[in-house]
Amino acid sequence: MHPVSQILTDDSRLKYIQLQISMAKNLVIVESPAKAKTIEGYLGKDFIVKSSFGHVRDLAKKDAIDVENNFQPNYIVSADKKQIVSELKKLAKEAEVVWLATDEDREGEAISWHLFETLNLAKKETKRITFNEITKTAILKAIESPREINKELVDAQQARRILDRLVGFELSPVLWRKVRPSLSAGRVQSVAVKLIVEKEKEIDAFKTESFYKVTGLFNADKGEIKGDVSKQFKSEKELVSFIESCKTDSFEVEDVTMKPATKKPVAPFTTSTLQQEASLKLGFSVSRTMQVAQR
Question: To bridge 100 with a disulfide, which of 31, 112, 213, 249 should be the other Cys (CB 3.0-4.6 Å)?
Answer without folding.
Answer: 112
